[in-house]
Records
---
Amino acid sequence: MTPSVVIPAPIPLGAGVVKRPTRMPDGRELIYYDDAGTTLSDERRVDERTLDPRPATATMRRDVLTGDWISVAAARQNRAHLPPADLDPLAPQTPTNPSEVPDRYDVVVFENRSPSFGPALAEAIGDAPAGENPPGDLDAPGLGRTFTSVGRCEVVCFSPEREGSFGTQTVARARTVIEAWADRTSVLSALPGVQQVFPFENRGEAIGVTLHHPHGQIYAYPYVTPRTRLLLQALEREGTDLFARILDFEQAGPRVVLEAEHWLAYVPFAARWPIEVHLAPRRHAADFAELTAAERDELARVYLRLLRGVDRLYPSPTPYIAAWHQAPVHVGRDGARLHLQLTSPRRAADKLKYLAGSEAAMGAWIGDVPPEQAAERLRAAVAEVGEIA
């Protein structure tokens, strides 16, 4: 039987990237992002699977001792865990692999089947229901406080290939992903109840990765995350020009890893992890959506060079978390700057840093590697990579 096809309406984005939104059988949104000069046709196969209804939106519980909100999402227990290559749920569908993506793609983004947040929102919009109890004042006191975990969780597939990471992509593909990050940041920031948007990539089983397919995720939270709340406090204490001063401070010191016209990569003065490098735009931009075309173009090359340098440190690929910190949607946008925090627990070729009593229980970190030493090794590794055409 010939599969059904559809031609999703094309929406032009920057750098020649084209966005093509569709839907999955259970109502989840799936968006193709075609490379500039893609070889794919306009037609896309229809997802003809029969899927179970989406799980109910999770519930948040407030830790009264810290003020943190914990989303209890039991449906995540059912997510795929290191499936065989021929059953890759992020590869294009085949007759023997009923994956999440019905057709070939360059980059694709879709709603997670077992999300930590959503599909409910603070207000009903489209086919997304409203949460049962809109959060209101999340900082109000009281024991036993709960709210619906409104928001959105999305998967970002960097490539249809079954193995790799962001760092293994071409410059053109990296540019497509950056455009997708910017587009999703804009769209998700406009959803009712979303307070912060967080793109990230987990790489390596040592980090807890359950799929080897090159991919990342985007979380749209219904609150400002604890790490960002601390950042906002720092901005209030130090001034809204803090990031500009940090870049000037690091530029003049021994921890710079990579310099470019629009971006600076450095090991921070008080790095916690054996491998920790930050990458930030020289000009203030609150999130991906605020980057200029020139900044996005250069980022595609700079980021690839940085990731490939990290992988030159040891004979085997290094596990990491690539966390793209963005300003909250509604507060702190004049001071909180988009920046990457790439961290790895790898402290030697065959050794990892584990968060034991002091770090895990008390949040009192002890650094294993002097930041200046880590920066020297990273700088040399990045230099070996050379400029990326």
---
Amino acid sequence: MFNFKALPWKPDAATTQRKDVVCSVDVEALHSEISDLEDRESHYKAQLEHVNEILRSSRLSGYLFLRTRWEALPGETPPIDDSEVHDWVQRFVVIQGSYIYLYTSATDLSPRDYTVLSEAIQVGPLPSLTRHEDGETLYCFYILTKAGLRYECSSTSKMQIDSWVAALEKECKFGRP
């Protein structure tokens, strides 16, 4: 019934060599993939450790919508009214030590920008805005620096804005009028 003569008992040299080549290519691809995964894992661990450190050592941190403006210097004409311009970008903002750090996201290892708290000369609320896309209210505040740079910050949570204003007034030794 079975014909054993049709079954090869010894692999020929060409078949063995081809299998070895395919196997070594596959093994190299797997080594490369494992190396890439290990690199990504170490990067994610570094991000996680950084976020953990920020959360443990910061006085206040969280996502805010942010935009920057320049105040008119004495004798300059006031800037144009751009209150209708919606150029808010979301940033992860951190008060840590004597700095305010601005990160693109919480997992970034280095800040996109920062300001020294001692450079802030004024902090206060701004009128709330309504987003046209979804009708949601944005509660706002600002931080004005000695150089005339004004950070305008907003959030959909009034409680979050009140916390930020209170923390900044305390850190910068401001009192509300």
---
Amino acid sequence: MSYSSPLLSRAGAAEHQGATFIDAAGVAWHYGDPLVEQRAAHNGTAIVDRSQRRVIAVAGPDAGEFLNNLLSQKLDTVPQGFSAGALDFDIKGHILHQMDLTLHEGTFYLDVPAGQFESLLDYLTKMIFWSKVTVKEADLALLTLLGSQKNSGLPIPASAVYTREVDWQGVPRTDIAVPRASLVDAVSELEEAGGRLVGLMAYTAERVRAREPELAADLDNKAIAHEVPQWIARGQSPAFVHLEKGCYRGQETVARVENLGRSPRVLVLLNLDGSAPSLPAIGDPVELGTRQVGRVGTIVHDFEWGPIALALVKRSALSNPQLHIGDVAASLDPDSVPSDEGPKAGRAAVDRLRGR
């Protein structure tokens, strides 16, 4: 049975039109004025209904160790309130599942796009063996606040089960999980305090600005973690992939790329020609001249920048900012090009052994 948010009954609510790989089914894409709605995230606080996502609760005395052995995030010793992203790989290091997670009162809550829920729940359930854990769906709905939530004094709804401040490269973001039965009341509380309900299009534009991919839309079945540079934990941010933890499926690929080389592709931000009669579709090839150098992912209109997109592009094409997707010119955002990480420790060791 397909999901339909109760907030779709609001005046002006419109779902995403047409098929899309973006996790958008069942919630409002906008409420009548999407570009103005996005502006609310920059001059106030925008409230986004992301209740199409589904939540898995993993609890029990072995929950942290259980998840630590399966996912890319270090979770065996994290404190209450810990929040981060995490990935699940296949044996070759290709990404199978992408999730946000929070530890609250001894339970790990993993929220994923609707299309990934069943397969992740099935995988976790099959991996329990003798671990003292329970794995089940949590009947929670996700709301996201974008903007100056802390400074505006906007209160957290009384029904909130947990909240998390998300460390990403966009406007300040707070995720709030509430019981599904309390979704409408929670939004009303936030609106009464000065927030504005906006559609998923506004969130998607901010997600693209933040270069935060959504697996089904922006990556493919060959994607590896290092193709999204900010997913690799460096410094204080836990990111999605912890580089100093025990073995998990797919870790060999992560370690090899980290220590010996670089990913062949990288996720970048593209500015598209707004005068084009039509925009590309997710999965269309990104080209340099007559040569295909990547694939385009999420495409969305931004209230300031016009049409923008995420794309997986070969590193060999990053020195040329002018690309195209069919007849649509695409300009590479220089700020999205990753900086050189310098010599790799593993490569240097190999060179020493070879006497170079």
---
Amino acid sequence: MSLRTRIRDFSSLVQLQAPALPTTASALHAARDIGDVRELARRRTPRFVFDYVDGGSFREESVAYNQTAFAGHRFAPRVLRPVGQPDLSAELLGGRTKLPIGLAPTGLTGLSHPEGEKAVARAAAAFGVPFSVSTMATSSIEDVAAAAPDSRRWFQLYLRTDRAKSLDLIRRALNHGYESLVLTVDTAVAGRRLRDDRNGLALPPKLRVDTFFDTARHPGWALRFLANGAPKLANFSESTNSISELVSSMFDPQLSFDDLDWLREQWPKNLIIKGVLHPDDARTAFDHGADAVWVSNHGGRQMDRTVAPIDVIAEIRAAVGPHRPLILDSGIRSGLDVAAALAAGADFVHVGRAFLYGLMAGGQPGVERVLQILSDETRNAMQLLGAATITDLRQGQLHAPLCMNLDQYPEDSVLNKRTA
């Protein structure tokens, strides 16, 4: 073969493309997984904003373990089972969703992007999944409903000692088409979020010298902040203290199952209890009128050193029976995690940090990119597992969790990073 022929054959394998200017759209398209989106978010936002999303309680051991617990579960794929294009839809609380994935309630969402909850609601509507608006949202109950009138909207409630104020929120949500009420029960007091304390996070943000210069290094975020004004807690006015002080002054440490009975009388639609980790609590919640239980450790943002929800979901499923709806969050960063949660006993999962990374990285398109990644990964996992439907995932394809020894993984492994 002549040299000319070899050069011609080699050149046919090389496809050079002219360089293009980087854009938000191209950066999001280049993101292959949630880790890539997280890194993009880290580069585009000031540290105090990223730390608020990324961080957890105290030493953040629960944050880290939520992810390693997923890695400790192993699949046993079934073969020679035609799957084609798996059906990712799920039945949940009287409605069908296009994906078994929802967007969890997150406070102070407007710190990540000025469109905040409105952008998230529109992205959720585009993918046909539910979105829970937090009591501590930076867009009001009414504004989110107006921004995405066709979305499946849930409202997450922190029941305050002042029941009249809570009742006002409940009625506003009911009057604006929110189909489910999510009562969070793992916030008797505020968790010790040391990253936020060290950064002096408050609402409205009060920039110190170090945070001022850090913000200046992120002009895109700073310009959006200046153009839209400081985010605020849109559903009430008490927003001048530090975040931990605000939580401590707002929530009710005396909350009990008796209050659940009261809430059941006030809310005629679906009632979901979020923050359950013990089988007995799950059973009791259903006994007191809950329509679903949300198994969660608040993403590691409340009590540190808790069990991971993925490790207890099977036991809770056994306790409540096969037909009562169970939702799971905390630690989900991939479609493999979604498949593992569903195979272990959850009916549905929610993500929090994952979509906030997308919001920080690119607003509504960033949230949509996260949902697309999770959708693609879940579909691929189901195809490889031989599961044509969500129901098929529960056919003995998940083995008991392994004991994880992080020393066996390199220091730069995802399993040794607190990527939250």
